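TICKET: design request
STATUS: open
ATTACHED STRUCTURE:
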């Protein structure tokens, strides 16, 4: 991720703090975590404060996080995510009110309240509204992904012969994606015959 787009994203989010009467935002939705940090791994939360960004994760991902994240302090947790986030918030004296996402579970919310010592305020959509407006880099990435998908589909069509199964064709598509350096946003959907009416069909041996 280039520095300028990431700075712009963080600037846009921080500009909303006054409007929502918060000092920071705790992001728990994986897509939003990636959006503000560049981290592509799992099991992580991000805290965007006025002057710093923190990524909370465990020891499996700390090396990856240091390589991927933009100007982010990596916090390696030893226990639950909510407890680690709560203790971090408790140490930040400049943070009194924190925006949280509505995807946060009740259990995590209760643990945060117990450990953080700050006011938690549900403010859904604070990041999503900016994610919906694509910058030049994102538009370029979408175009590149579409080109890769078109080439992979052309290769798969060449293998589309009588007797091939849904799973086999899905595997060919996945291989073509990986050969071109791509990862799937979701499981590849291939559906034959009556299965084609199912928009989220999982490929079978049909």
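STATUS: resolved
RESOLUTION: sequence designed for all positions
ATTACHED SEQUENCE:
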């Amino acid at each position: 991720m280039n520095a300028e787009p990431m700075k712009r994203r963080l600037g846009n989010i921080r500009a909303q703090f006054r409007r929502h009467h918060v000092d920071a935002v705790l992001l728990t939705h994986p897509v939003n975590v990636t959006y503000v940090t560049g981290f592509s791994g799992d099991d992580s939360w991000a805290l965007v404060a006025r002057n710093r960004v923190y990524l909370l994760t465990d020891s499996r991902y700390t090396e990856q996080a240091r390589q991927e994240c933009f100007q982010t302090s990596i916090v390696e947790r030893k226990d639950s995510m909510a407890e680690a986030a709560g203790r971090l918030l408790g140490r930040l004296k400049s943070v009194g009110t924190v925006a949280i996402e509505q995807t946060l579970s009740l259990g995590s919310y209760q643990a945060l309240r117990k450990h953080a010592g700050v006011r938690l305020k549900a403010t859904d959509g604070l990041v999503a509204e900016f994610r919906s407006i694509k910058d030049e880099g994102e538009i370029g990435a979408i175009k590149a992904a579409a080109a890769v998908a078109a080439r992979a589909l052309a290769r798969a069509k060449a293998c589309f012969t009588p007797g091939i199964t849904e799973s086999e064709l899905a595997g060919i598509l996945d291989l073509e994606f990986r050969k071109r350096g791509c990862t799937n946003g979701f499981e590849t959907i291939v559906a034959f015959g009556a299965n084609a009416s199912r928009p989220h069909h999982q490929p079978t041996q049909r």
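CLOSING REMARK: The longest helix spans residues 136-158. The chain has nine helices and six strands.
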